[in-house]
Design brief:
Elements lengths: L1 E6 L14 E5 L4 E4 L6 H9 L8 E3 L5 H4 L2 H7 L4 E5 L7 E3 L5 E3 L6 H4 L4 E4 L3 E4 L2 E3 L1
Parallel strand pairs: 3-4, 4-5, 5-8
Antiparallel strand pairs: 1-2, 2-3, 6-7, 9-10
């Protein structure tokens, strides 16, 4: 198994960075994407690293914040087969506070759940998605 970080908040001379996370996981039988970063930056970095996002078989959103899920629409346009598995509690109306105490939107892009409903799979508890591949 090999895991390649496509985007995170650590600057690299060759790759772009942002406050976000996306990881490409390869094993002998499948390719998995965990999180989608805060933008489509993970796509550009995947290209630089020679990782083909069209080959992703399964994708997962760890939680519903923008820095992990804003790239979902861009991914679903590139890859026409992988579903996005996420917790049943993920909603688009996720708010938080900035450093000054102002309320800010920090959820996944509005319209994602409805606009891509045939590709979004909400899960609860332990689920075997494929042989040896589980959600919790």
């Amino acid at each position: 198994m090999k895991a390649t970080v496509l985007v995170d908040n650590i600057s690299n001379c060759e790759l772009e960075s942002e406050w976000g996370l996306s990881v490409y996981i390869e094993d002998k039988e499948r390719n998995i994407l965990v999180d989608f970063g805060a933008s489509d930056m993970f796509i550009r970095n995947a290209e630089k690293l020679g990782k083909d996002l069209k080959k992703i078989d399964y994708s997962f959103l760890s939680h519903g914040h923008y820095d992990h899920g804003n790239g979902i629409p861009a991914f679903l346009k590139i890859n026409d087969r992988a579903k996005v598995y996420m917790s049943s509690t993920v909603e688009e109306n996720c708010y938080g506070y900035d450093d000054d105490g102002n309320i800010i939107y920090e959820g996944i892009p509005e319209g994602t759940l409805g606009g891509f409903s045939e590709r979004i799979v909400k899960v609860k508890g332990l689920n075997e998605i494929a042989e040896g591949l589980y959600t919790l």
